[in-house]
Amino acid sequence: MNIALIAHDKKKDDIVKLATAYKDVLAKHRLFATGTTGGRIIDATGLDIHRFKSGPLGGDQQIGAYISDNKIDMVCFIRDPLTPQAHEPDISALLRLCDVYEIPLATNMSSAEMLLRGLDAGFLDWRNVAKESDRDELNF
Ligand SMILES: O=C(CO)COP(=O)(O)O
């Protein structure tokens, strides 16, 4: 599965803790992240992560584009609900695309933990079917 990891600045320590605790689960998948979040997780865990631009510089939009291309299977976006973000429209667009494409989305630590456990238990395997039928339709 392709997993996107994102966290706002005040939640970076949290996502590093999450990635450290679930390193063995995450290591079985292809990982993507916004720039600063990805750097922090790589430094702490050594996981292999494709880093997009930083969120405020377009990283959320890049992940949104991947979602619309059916290239992301799950998003853990640990949001800071108490700090205004300059790029709020980009954040809303990303969350909206998760709903448009039925992509599992966690926006806080406890739901992220549940999604990661579900991922490891195979609850997301239906995404392979979704991707296969998409491939058939597009004649890949
Ligand atoms: O701003 C973000 C998400 O909206 C995260 O971006 P960074 O990981 O680059 O800090």
Structural features, described:
- The longest helix is centred in the C-terminal third of the chain and has 13 residues, at 88-100.
- The protein has helices at residues 12-21, 23-26, 35-45, 59-68, 88-100, 109-120, 126-138; strands at 2-7, 30-33, 49-51, 74-78, 105-106.
- With 140 residues, it is of the alpha/beta class.
- 52% of the residues lie in helices and 14% in strands.
- Strand 4, helix 5 and strand 5 (105-106) form a beta-alpha-beta unit.
- The model has no long low-confidence stretch (mean pLDDT 95).
- The structure holds 1,3-dihydroxyacetonephosphate.
- Residues 6, 8, 34-37, 54-56, 59-60, 91 line the site of 1,3-dihydroxyacetonephosphate (13P).
Summarize the structure.
With 140 residues, the chain is α/β, with parallel strands linked by helices.
> What class would the helix/strand composition place it in?
alpha/beta
CATH architecture: 3-Layer(aba) Sandwich
Query: What is the average of the pLDDT values?
Result: 95
The CATH superfamily title: Methylglyoxal synthase-like domain
Ligand inventory reads: 1,3-dihydroxyacetonephosphate
Unreliable spans: none
Question: What is the CATH level 1 assignment?
Answer: Alpha Beta
Specify the overall morphology. globular
Topology summary:
Blueprint: E1 2-7, H1 12-21, H2 23-26, E2 30-33, H3 35-45, E3 49-51, H4 59-68, E4 74-78, H5 88-100, E5 105-106, H6 109-120, H7 126-138
Parallel strand pairs: 1-2, 1-4, 2-3, 4-5
Helix pairs in contact: 1-3, 4-5
The structure holds 1,3-dihydroxyacetonephosphate.
